[in-house]
Amino acid sequence: MKRSIVTLVLTAAALAAHAEGPADFAWRLPLATPGEGAFYRVEIPPTVYEGAVRADLGDIRVFNGAGAPVPLAFLAPPPAARAAATPVPLPLFPLRVDRDRRDLGDLTMTVRRDTAGTTVNLSTRDGAAVAGERLAGYLVDASGVDVAVRALTLQLPDGASVSTRVRVEGSDDLANWRVLAANAPVLAVEFGGRRLSRDRVDLAQGAAKYLRVTTEPGQPTLEIAGVRGESADRVMEPARQSRQVKGVADAAIPGEYVFDLGAALPVDRIALDLPEINTVAPAQVYARRNAKDEWRPAGASVFYRLKQPDATDTTSPPMAVAAGPARYWKVVVDPRSGGVGSTPPALTALWIPQSLVFAARGGGPFELAYGSAQALPVALPVGTLVPGFDARTMPAAFATATPGEATTPPALAALKQPIDTRRWLLWSALGIATLVLGWMAWSLSRQMRVPPKP
Known about the structure:
Blueprint: H1 2-16, E1 27-32, E2 39-43, H2 46-51, E3 61-63, E4 72-75, E5 81-83, E6 88-89, E7 92-97, E8 107-114, E9 117-124, E10 134-141, E11 149-155, E12 162-171, E13 178-191, E14 194-198, E15 200-202, E16 210-215, E17 226-231, E18 234-236, E19 241-246, E20 248-249, E21 256-265, E22 269-273, E23 279-288, E24 296-307, E25 313-315, E26 319-320, E27 326-333, E28 346-351, E29 355-359, E30 366-370, H3 382-385, H4 394-397, E31 399-400, E32 402-403, H5 421-449
Parallel strand pairs: 2-31
Antiparallel strand pairs: 1-30, 1-32, 2-29, 3-30, 4-29, 5-18, 6-17, 7-10, 8-9, 10-16, 11-15, 11-17, 12-13, 12-16, 13-14, 19-28, 20-21, 21-27, 22-26, 22-28, 23-24, 23-27, 24-25
């Protein structure tokens, strides 16, 4: 009897140890692998999310030309990179006032642009002209810069000897000014054939179209030959894939819209495309992986679409969300905002595509297979698959394998959940063992009831 139990267990293990092949997966995509690299990187296309059975994409395989699986590993999403900003020259205009005037606060500035160029005029608040007898400072035009200026580099005249302190103020309308830098030292001295200079002035946070540079009271006047503006380093977001779907309005609840992306995509940004101009819609956002799950809060934002004087539209930027992979999204617009109109809005979902790297073992052509109810995760840690892996430099060095269109009809039978033979065999073995133990106990009990022979 013990031998029978062992035989059943070994049979169950043998059935579980099933060798996988390409035909065991519902979909297969050919991979174009240029060159003869040791490793290739694949950016997972949206169709894989639609067909994969497992939420962690554990039913993905890469097969070589002989139909054998090759080792693979998933790559972490690339971090946001920083790009150093390049200083740009800015238009500079000298401000000249009356000899006895010490303050520019009661003066009015106007900037005029025409085909001949840009001119700056100074006048008193009652419109009287200002005599240009003394250099009081400079006006820097930063209106043509897309990002906020974080520092100014002052170009001093050749051979100038300067030791003074300056103040930098910012304004968007040339009427109201705020201090961006105060008592900032500017230095240029020469001694023993060497020159020491300090010509950079850091500015406080905040964008300003115009900058006014003046010397502090009691400090020597500063002459500037030119100025360059420096912005903060730009954050370069990784490239994202996107999918746009139309919303479905809930007739019972006004202002509630549901969106079906068609797959549980790893969305980290969403944008609401409003149908009507000049719409402002405060809304709550919810998400869920499938139709049976409960809605989970994913955030709140104010979505808008406004018409500008130049006839262009200004729309709200994409909203960051952290809901995990989700197929269904719901937007509930605050009814006090008046809604978004009679046409449901559209939702644009954005996500950083996941990538995997595989070893080109056995030769091509390689293919990406996915969609199996039996497959279990087989991905290795990337540090195990790629010796000496460096997340900062190596992903860009991998050759890129490009998925193509499926060339074989889908094997939909792979999506069906098979009978768990191992579980049934194990339960059968357990039942037989229980019966054997019961029979042994019954036999022992009978023997104990028989009186001993004299």
